[in-house]
Amino acid sequence: ETVLTVDGLRKIYNEGTDQANMAIDAVSFHVDKGEFVCIVGPSGAGKTTLLRCISGLASPSAGAVTFEGRPLTNVPEQLGLVFQDYGRSLYPWLTNGDNVALPLSARRMPRAERAARVAESLQSVGLGHVERKYPWELSGGMQQRVAIARALSYRPELLLMDEPFASVDAQTRFDLEDLILEVRRELGITVVLVTHDIDEAIYLSDRIVVLSKNPSVVREVVDVDLGDER
Ligand code: ADP
Ligand code: ADP
């Protein structure tokens, strides 16, 4: 069952000026419910642009994104976002628990429910014990887990991640990859993840969307079947 449809997406930066730059063109693919899709391609292929257009952080110049048949809206019930730059995405003056609570407070969830949801989200990434600590007291890998917990706190249907493991060391990256596979299994959430690392894409995903650089279009969609290996 298709939940996410990306249809003919094009993004031209600085459109109508002599700086015009077509970052992506005619990108189309679909994602089934519960599927894990990776978007790969060389640097500058438009991966981040594509993810920003899907999430509504950037407006496409042409084409459309629909989720369950309707335009995808950037609300925490629908969409969880995780970026590479976890250091900047967590607020240092808030505890980890309060960082995770942000999407919930923004939607005015009642205090008791919010507290339960924060504890549940942090536990789901193995960090129940850091709720009252601050992000700067944690390692980079742990901070990224907090960022994932925040993205999951509203139990979104779709998780979008942009190079989420690019800034951590190799062992931490392997741990985070396994964590996200486990979270996905437990929650049955649909995941779209951008990476430049083809090995990571093969390890994580059911399907890989390959973007080429010139022109920046979908070159190939590859099915990954690892059987029981994962
Ligand atoms: P939009 O078309 O979505 O409004 P803009 O073209 O206005 O986006 O660019 C958004 C911001 O990104 C601007 O502040 C611009 O300075 C900055 N920017 C411009 N060129 C680049 C680039 N090559 N890479 C990253 N950011 C850039
Ligand atoms: P990737 O994530 O695959 O490295 P990007 O989506 O970051 O690719 O960039 C695709 C192209 O769009 C590049 O040529 C980049 O310079 C350009 N670009 C990205 N962001 C902006 C922006 N905000 N304004 C103008 N150009 C941009």
UniProtKB/TrEMBL annotation:
UniProt key word rRNA-binding: no
GO MF term list: ATP binding
Keywords from the UniProt entry: ATP-binding, Nucleotide-binding, Transport
Gene3D superfamilies, alphabetized: P-loop containing nucleotide triphosphate hydrolases
InterPro entries (UniProt xref): AAA+_ATPase, ABC_transporter-like_ATP-bd, ABC_transporter-like_CS, ABC_transporter_ATP-bind, P-loop_NTPase
Lineage of producing organism: Bacteria, Bacillati, Actinomycetota, Actinomycetes, Micrococcales
Annotated ranges, domain ABC transporter: 4-230
Protein name as catalogued: ABC transporter ATP-binding protein
Transmembrane segments: none
Signal peptide per UniProt: none
Keyword tRNA processing: no
PANTHER family in UniProt: ALIPHATIC SULFONATES IMPORT ATP-BINDING PROTEIN SSUB, TAURINE IMPORT ATP-BINDING PROTEIN-RELATED
